[in-house]
Task: inverse folding
């Protein structure tokens, strides 16, 4: 069904014609031979944004695999040039409707580095809370609405409502908590408005903070139920054991880093955000509209909740540890099918962190002066989907000369494709629909956000064989 | 879940956008199951895997049109839906992606991609440039109360009550002190369509016009006030350009005589 609906939209009729547009330019003409088949997902469902997956199988071997992210480019990095620095957090928030806070705060921190602005501790606390709220909302969306239906055998969370009313109601309740938390700090759930360079335009009052803290504290039972729900979920039996990929995430002097710290990897990387470009390079791989990242001299790498936990497992607090135990997640883990459990662990970890921050909710600090001056600055934060990099050069009049933004899904795109390629030999003899289903799950493990990376995913399977003709 | 009449078939399509307005559909947590009981989400790729081909009764389109492929796609969508609603400011006016329109496409592409030849992009526009549109849900993002109002009105067969007077009226109802008059912060509230409850001014920051022009706006007069407040022509142009720069009303504001 996904295929048929995608075809309506994208011009391909039955999965046997390449869609129009950039892809058709690079696809060779299709000689249909007896041993050759092509499997595709036209429009990967339940992810944020638009992408397709094309697999070609010849004599039972994978001959071609393309993850085509056809999400149309919106050219943020181009139109940021010449805008005033004060506009940048508001503009970059619109890169992504799911993680606007991450883009907003990373832009703010990069620009503050460029302008030499240091914000007082209470501002850092409120930003930490805002970032946590976003991860809660995004993780609940991913766990329950995007990933869980696969594991339980439903096409969507909406379809689960009749058989699993309790689960769906819990999902909506937890999601509401995340959104209300974001609104409490940011003034609005999607594209919040209060965070600006130097601080906040509105400071929540202590009574609001206390009320939010009570609601977060009361989420323990929902967390526990979520952990028990994902506890039995595991890697499909068809797949080979997971490969070891390099994983990268922030790590700080203390605590579970999401806003500040140095960027570490399981391969030994340890760098300040300002030196990111010495270590990471990007390539544009047509037909995809997303850019692929690599660690220089090594190769693809993975960012996200599993990477964060692998690199910060000594930093778990009581709720994080309790969720880890309840999920039965073993760290370190290389298995991207553990990502859903990693998200549950992070829910516990971050809610506990938020409770501590809210217990000593700070009074609003005095406003910090923001000078207009030339400078360059960079920041890395942990968006829900992994490390997010922003860097800017500002001129003496306060206008942006250069903008460099690398989203988590760009960091993951090459690994995502590599993992699909590595797993393909185990999948090629399965029926089309099964290949599609497992491939889509593998893609969803990364919780890809193609709006971000181009600024969705569909999997196409093409089979050419005597049996089908 | 037996319903006396067939549930209207609803489709949600994504064009060039951030997915935030689609997310707002899922963000009606407390009413989502009631809505799912009243309408049939037949096509909604971000939320479901089994998506059924048209025709549909009601189509929501998120995002701006930014490529020739999308021009074809929006015409196909129009042919599949009885009523078409632009979901959010990108679909209504081109939105924030239309910021790129002030530079040449080649220049913009070369800025981001190694192989710009593979990218087929055109100036960003609202969907009404290419197809007739039956309704607008403004905002960046859309307001969930307005979404529910539109869905309820559609189910009842009446006209939804969407307020298109200026944000200033809602701001006064919130009893906010005027940011322009008391703090000298340049605000687009006087010319921007209401419906957000004056969200930004209520949170201590000026309106940046994300909902596009209100009914009968006097953007020229506001531009004059900005000029008197000491803004340069370029700064005034930028203020009007951000979310609905290609609308006639905001263009008039951006062109100070």
Result:
């Amino acid at each position: 069904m996904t295929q048929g609906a995608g075809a309506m939209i994208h011009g391909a009729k039955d999965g046997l014609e390449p869609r129009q547009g950039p892809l058709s330019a690079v696809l060779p003409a299709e000689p249909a031979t007896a041993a050759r088949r092509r499997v595709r997902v036209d429009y990967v469902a339940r992810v944020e944004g638009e992408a397709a997956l094309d697999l070609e199988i010849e004599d039972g071997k994978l001959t071609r695999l393309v993850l085509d992210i056809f999400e149309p480019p919106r050219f943020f990095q181009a139109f940021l040039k010449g805008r005033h620095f004060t506009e940048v957090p508001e503009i970059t928030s619109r890169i992504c409707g799911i993680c606007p806070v991450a883009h907003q705060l990373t832009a703010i921190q990069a620009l503050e580095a460029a302008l030499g602005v240091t914000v007082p501790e209470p501002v850092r606390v409120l930003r930490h809370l805002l970032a946590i709220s976003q991860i809660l909302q995004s993780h609940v969306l991913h766990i329950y609405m995007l990933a869980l239906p696969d594991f339980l055998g439903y096409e969507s969370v909406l379809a689960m409502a009749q058989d699993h009313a309790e689960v769906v109601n819990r999902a909506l309740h937890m999601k509401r908590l995340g959104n209300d938390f974001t609104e409490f700090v940011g003034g609005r759930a999607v594209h919040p408005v209060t965070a600006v360079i130097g601080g906040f335009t509105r400071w929540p009052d202590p009574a609001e903070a206390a009320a939010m803290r009570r609601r977060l504290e009361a989420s323990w039972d929902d967390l526990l139920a979520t952990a028990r729900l994902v506890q039995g979920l595991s890697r499909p039996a068809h797949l080979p054991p997971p490969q070891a990929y390099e994983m990268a995430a922030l790590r700080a002097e203390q605590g579970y880093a999401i806003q500040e710290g140095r960027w570490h990897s399981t391969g030994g990387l340890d760098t300040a955000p300002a030196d990111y470009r010495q270590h990471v390079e990007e390539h544009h791989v047509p037909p995809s509209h997303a850019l692929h990242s690599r660690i220089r001299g090594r190769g693809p790498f993975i960012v996200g909740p599993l990477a964060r936990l692998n690199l910060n497992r000594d930093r778990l607090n009581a709720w994080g540890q309790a969720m880890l135990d309840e999920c039965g997640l073993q760290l370190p883990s290389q298995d991207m099918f553990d990502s859903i459990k990693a998200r549950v662990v992070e829910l516990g970890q971050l809610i506990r962190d938020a409770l501590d921050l809210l217990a000593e909710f700070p009074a609003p600090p005095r406003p910090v002066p923001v000078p207009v001056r030339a400078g360059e600055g960079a920041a890395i934060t942990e968006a829900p989907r992994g490390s997010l990099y922003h860097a800017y050069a500002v001129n003496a009049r306060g206008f942006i000369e250069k903008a460099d933004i690398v989203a988590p899904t760009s960091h993951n795109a090459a690994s995502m494709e590599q993992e699909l390629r590595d797993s393909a030999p185990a999948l090629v003899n399965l029926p089309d629909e099964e290949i599609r289903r497992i491939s889509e799950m593998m893609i969803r493990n990364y919780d890809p956000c193609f709006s971000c990376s181009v600024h969705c995913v569909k999997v196409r399977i093409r089979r050419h064989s005597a049996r089908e003709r | 879940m037996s319903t006396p009449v067939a549930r209207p078939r609803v489709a949600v399509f994504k064009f060039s956008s951030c997915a935030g307005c689609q997310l707002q559909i899922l963000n009606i947590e407390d009413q989502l199951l009631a809505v799912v009981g009243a309408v049939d989400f037949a096509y909604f790729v971000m939320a479901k895997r089994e998506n059924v081909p048209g025709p549909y009764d009601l189509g929501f389109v998120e995002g701006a049109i930014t490529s020739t492929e999308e021009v074809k796609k929006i015409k196909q969508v129009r042919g599949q839906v009885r009523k078409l609603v632009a979901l959010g400011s990108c679909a209504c006016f081109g939105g924030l992606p239309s910021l790129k329109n002030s530079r040449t496409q080649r220049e913009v592409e070369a800025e981001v991609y190694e192989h710009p030849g593979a990218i087929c992009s055109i100036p960003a526009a609202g969907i009404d440039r290419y197809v007739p549109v039956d309704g607008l849900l403004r905002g960046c993002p859309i307001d969930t109360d307005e979404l529910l109002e539109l869905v309820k009105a559609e189910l009842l067969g009446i006209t939804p009550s969407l307020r298109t007077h200026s944000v200033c009226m809602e701001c006064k109802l919130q009893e906010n002190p005027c940011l322009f008059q008391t703090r000298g912060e340049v605000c687009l509230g006087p010319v921007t369509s209401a419906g957000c409850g004056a969200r930004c001014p209520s949170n201590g920051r000026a309106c940046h016009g994300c909902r596009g022009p209100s009914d009968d706006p006097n953007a020229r007069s506001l531009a004059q006030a900005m000029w008197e407040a000491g803004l340069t022509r370029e700064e005034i142009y930028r203020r009007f350009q951000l979310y609905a720069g290609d609308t006639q009303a905001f263009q008039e504001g951006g062109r100070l005589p």
Chain A has two domains: 2-72+430-462, 76-359. Residues 121-152 of chain A form the longest helix (32 residues).
